[in-house]
Amino acid sequence: xxxxxxxxxxxxxxxxxxxxxxxxxxxxxxxxxxxxxxxxxxxxxxxxxxxxxxxxxxxxxxxxxxxxxxxxxxxxxxxxxxxxxxxxxxxxxxxxxxxxxxxxxxxxxxxxxxxxxxxxxxxxxxxxxxxxxxxxxxxxxxxxxxxxxxxxxxxxxxxxxxxxxxxxxxxxxxxxxxxxxxxxxxxxxxxxxxxxxxxxxxxxxxxxxxxxxxxxxxxxxxxxxxxxxxxxxxxxxxxxxxxxxxxxxxxxxxxxxxxxxxxxxxxxx
Length: 269
Description:
Blueprint: E1 2-6, H1 13-22, E2 26-31, E3 42-45, H2 54-58, E4 63-66, H3 76-97, E5 102-108, H4 131-144, E6 149-155, E7 157-159, E8 181-182, E9 184-186, H5 187-198, E10 206-208, E11 215-216, H6 217-223, H7 246-250, H8 260-265
Parallel strand pairs: 1-2, 1-4, 2-3, 4-5, 5-6, 6-10, 7-9
Antiparallel strand pairs: 8-11
Helix pairs in contact: 1-5, 3-4
């Protein structure tokens, strides 16, 4: 099976691509000029913001794994252009040149409302205000309405494989309540989920994928030998960034790195 991967050199793609190749998938990486190609993958020049480059990139593929996105940027226009418009361009190319291909899109648990009354569920109404999740919701809608064979995987906080993401967390949560719990997923289990999606298990579904134990900011900081200010006051939005992974488990997803504690103990950070 030939799989086109967008964002193959990003935080997720750099670690997912070799795992998919190890599992026997022929991976084709969509790369802008000057970007290195992951070892063993086939490079194809293109850019999701340039529709003319996408027809050849998608021709002949059995699936597309769409990871490319802009997250941490002050350029709101770039976020919308990349996450919504880029996805639209890719959808159009697949419809025209590989209409039977599976289109698997990575999305985010940030789409769920801050004051959700329970862990985020796939059927919750979502109306995020921040440009990143808002643009992801718009892209999700476009894909769901595309007529393609699609699946959308909403990932929570991603970590592991030496990516430095978890280690940077204390720099971003200084004003957070230390009791705030956050769902997480290790890179190894992003591959677990994507392989299920490539097999069709998630077809025409939005699916939350997370490990077994959301941890508090206080606990995560402790694993990193960092400190956050203690606070016994009320937690205003207890379900923020905490997702319900029941659907994924009902469909057969089982995390191999079940908790951040396991990752820490086994040297998988």
